[in-house]
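Propose amino acids for all 348 sites.
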């Protein structure tokens, strides 16, 4: 069904304070009106705000800002904390973004924001919007090249098998986006959907990065292997996986399009998926591990593996002329210290 437009605004970029005369607009019920005296809510209670049918509430500065800057969702109302102080500059920027998209802005109290997002950390910002859904692989286009990229650039896809924790999924998307993964594909069955919590954990990366899903992960992996892709799985320890070789991620060489497959938080990759892999990667530990803590969080492990692979794209010698010139210019700069150049990062 079509989602109705937010009602009660004569101009799309209206900016309103939540005052008693706005009760009908905000859907405050009779109980809330009877409880309020002189336009003030009883101590410790938040007046309810009626949601637009079919909408969800994004929370946090980064997810809301990214959603406002993109054209991937229908947006209904932006809710900002009614206060000044250090958040004023952020609020002003969000108001400008909302005005550009024709999204009404409402200034509310902290308790209203807490109620909207279920008590999560909202940083004084909530945004009412339609949900984002996974894209089907059948709708996928071949990834294009970014400015300055070589047409021979190696491709890297990240495949997630039954990741169920929204915080993990968000962190995975954030790392994949930052490190240059070309596409993320998740199994549709027993996987976490794209929720506001995922967007918050991704620091807004979910709002700009398409995520695809498939109903038949094994057929997808078989098809990509037949096309010449290398399917690489992951395990937590150096252990035998039938006829699939297990190597350290430090020994892996990226010389063809690859798919890195990550398993669920509890069980890892299913045996059926492991048997479709050409190699299995393991992260070597830095010490003898105590029994029971031999593994990493799935999002942390994936970040390490992705960096180990992606750093091969820009790994050069510290004596490379371009690197030497970059370091020289850094040292001569009278301004604040600059970030290390990529050659230093790639050799860590």
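Proposal:
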């Amino acid at each position: 069904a079509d989602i109705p437009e937010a009602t009660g605004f004569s101009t799309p970029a209206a900016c309103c304070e939540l005052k008693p005369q706005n009760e009908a607009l905000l859907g405050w019920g009779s109980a809330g009106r009877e409880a309020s005296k002189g336009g003030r809510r009883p101590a410790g209670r938040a007046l309810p705000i009626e949601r637009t049918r079919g909408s969800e509430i994004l929370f946090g500065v980064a997810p809301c800002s990214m959603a406002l800057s993109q054209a991937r969702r229908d947006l209904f109302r932006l809710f900002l904390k009614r206060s000044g102080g250090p958040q004023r500059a952020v609020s002003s920027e969000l108001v400008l973004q909302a005005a550009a998209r024709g999204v009404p802005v409402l200034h509310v109290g902290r308790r209203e924001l807490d109620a909207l997002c279920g008590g999560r950390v909202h940083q004084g910002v909530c945004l009412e919007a339609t949900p984002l859904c996974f894209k089907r692989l059948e709708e996928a286009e071949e990834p294009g090249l970014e400015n300055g990229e070589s047409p021979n650039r190696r491709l890297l896809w990240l495949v997630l098998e039954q990741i169920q924790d929204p915080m993990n999924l968000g962190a995975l998307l954030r790392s994949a986006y930052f490190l240059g993964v070309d596409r993320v594909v998740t199994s549709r069955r027993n996987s976490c959907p794209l929720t506001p919590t995922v967007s918050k954990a991704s620091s807004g990366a979910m709002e700009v990065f398409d995520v695809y899903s498939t109903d038949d992960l094994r057929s997808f992996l078989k098809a990509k292997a037949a096309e010449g892709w290398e399917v690489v799985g992951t395990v937590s320890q150096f252990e035998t996986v039938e006829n699939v070789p297990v190597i350290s991620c430090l020994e892996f060489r990226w010389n063809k399009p690859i798919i890195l497959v990550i398993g669920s938080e509890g069980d890892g990759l299913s045996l059926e998926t492991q048997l479709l892999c050409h190699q299995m990667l393991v992260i070597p530990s830095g010490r003898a591990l105590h029994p029971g803590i031999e593994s990493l969080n799935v999002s942390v492990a994936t970040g390490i593996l992705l960096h180990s692979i992606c750093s091969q794209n820009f790994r050069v010698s510290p004596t490379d002329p371009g690197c030497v010139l970059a370091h020289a210019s850094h040292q001569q700069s009278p301004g604040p210290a600059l970030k290390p150049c990529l050659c230093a990062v790639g050799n860590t």
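Residues 1-43, 315-348 have pLDDT under 50 and may be disordered. The CA atoms of residues 219 and 276 lie 10 Å apart.
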